[in-house]
Input
Amino acid sequence: MYAYIGRQAIYNTVFNVAGYELLYRRNEQIGAAGLDMDGDEMTKSVLLDAVNVFGIKNLTNGLPAYINFTRNLIMDDFAYLFDPNEIIVEVPAEVFVNDALVGKLSGLQRAGYRLSLNSYNEQNGRIKFDRIINSFDVIRVQTGGKNKLMLKDILQRLRFSRAQLLAERVENEAEFEMVQALKFTLFQGYYFERPDIVSKQVSLTATPYGKMFAEIMKPMPNFEMCCRIVETDSMLAHLFLRHVLKTRYSRENLAAAVRHAMTLLGLEGIRLWTSAQFLKQTNTSNSDELARKAFLRGRFVERLIQNSETSLPKEQGFFMGLISLLDQVTGSAIESILSELVINPSAAAALLGEEENEYSAYLQYAMAYEQASNAMYFPDIKLRLGDRHVSNLYMECMEDTDKAFAEEEKE
Output
């Protein structure tokens, strides 16, 4: 599997690189920013890969990493998980500004974090940002396509700001000379370079989510191991505690908090939450729907086993159904995936198409049901349900999938 991050340099007045903007990329295609994906998830994905796969300093050569933070992530204190010397928190232009947000930005400033406004213009500046303009260390202004008079009007409102001005979307030499004359000190755009994509081949179990997924797949997951995986990764700990306890990550009594949350959620809840997060993080396809479909198929196979005359463990059915689409989600060969995970040998044989067995019958039934065609072959899996009840069961699995992939509550 490959991890991807977009990167575009920011230059100073003497053409030296002063930092890098890190961008979400789902695959190797330039501009494939996954617009169907939630902004919170994009930022989390960028930071997860930047920290755990690439290393932020390796991506930026030790220079600041400009990373877009949604309002929700700012309100959730997500930036505090990262070294203030390594990141610059970018506040999007469309953010809703109120006293609560102002308080959060002030707190970040006091903690030593640098803030960038992305992007100041003649509309949003007058409406909502003028009163907090001194919260920012860098202010981005979209200069591409604007004439000198328009830019002078914007700069007039910024004349008392302490921030460095960053001219973005500088497309050619004439535009560069114009913004230089207007006293911009940072520059970004195609005149300097286009965004590139940094990629790295990683194993499925290289990230904390991958390690958790591999552990919960085992017939008898190790509770202590699950706790240690969560405790040793600040981002995972924050997200897990936020999900279960609705509280923010705190370094105080972390071990006790994680164990309490694990106990409250239970093995079933841990399995479902981890699986959904793992699918989100490893998805390199062009749509979130494939990741959702993998979770749904796993849940459906599990519930079919649960409602049949069989002794097969339902958990193995869940993982088999999920893994049956994991090659398409991750872009990795199924043989490579199975080499990293522990699954029942018969389930593995069914996934590889090596033998027809009871596991393969459930998988074939689920796949046939997805096709919703009378011409499809449905194996006899000795269901204790009628057709209408199977339909209800599938709808329940769809609801479970929606819940697992739902966004956290916004503030």
Q: What stands out?
A: DSSP finds 18 helices and nine strands in the chain. The mean pLDDT is 88. The longest strand covers residues 2-12.
